[in-house]
Amino acid sequence: MDWGGPDFGPGMRAMTRKITLTINGKTYTDEVEPRLLLIHYLREVAGLTGPHIGCETSICGACTVMLDGMAVKSCTMFAVQAEGREILTIEGLARNGKLDPLQEAFWNEHALQCGFCTPGMILTARQLLADHPNPTEQEIRHGLEGNLCRCTGYQHIVNAVKTAAKAGGA
Amino acid sequence: MATTVTRQETLFGKRVRRQEDPRLITGTALYLDDLKMPGMHHAIVVPK
Question: What is the 3-state secondary structure (H, E, C) of chain A?
């Protein structure tokens, strides 16, 4: 799909802007319409379908990525706002085939069933552990409030974050 | 995790990790919305 903007006919193409950003250590340069949401840019232009679209209204957190080390909901930003910045998606978390402690913990603690919320959960948890290296259960639940899971029920997710914290997950 | 089951050893009482999880925790799993087919179009119903 061409997400550069709608084609209104010859000479009528919508205005686009050139953006350059880093995603998972790789540089991307693309022409995008200013109204293009970051999540659509990541999925449709950059081809990274790890971040998911659950609600597109900033409620569910399935689209969470890290922007300059901060967890953000990528449906809440325009792609042009990511100009010059560094993004980490779930695809970039494992290094050289080695899973991040959070990924290991989610796997070991059965913190997922369908897995749709998992990329967002893991990256939000990464932010949580950066802020609270040894979080209490309350801090974990508070930190994950912006991420909805519709199948596992949160207990195993909380357990996974605790386990990752013990393993030095941030 | 590959587990070899022999007559002496069974999976009863063992911790088992789900085989489908690696792709789900690395963002490589493909959901319906992630698929791209040749000539694929998107359609939406607008109620009036």
Answer: CCCCCCCCCCCCCCCCEEEEEEECCEEEEEEECCCCEHHHHHHHHCCCCCCCCCCCCCCCCCCEEEECCEEEECCCCEHHHHCCCEEECHHHCCECCECCHHHHHHHHCCCCCCCCCHHHHHHHHHHHHHHCCCCCHHHHHHHCCCCCCCCCCCHHHHHHHHHHHHCCCC
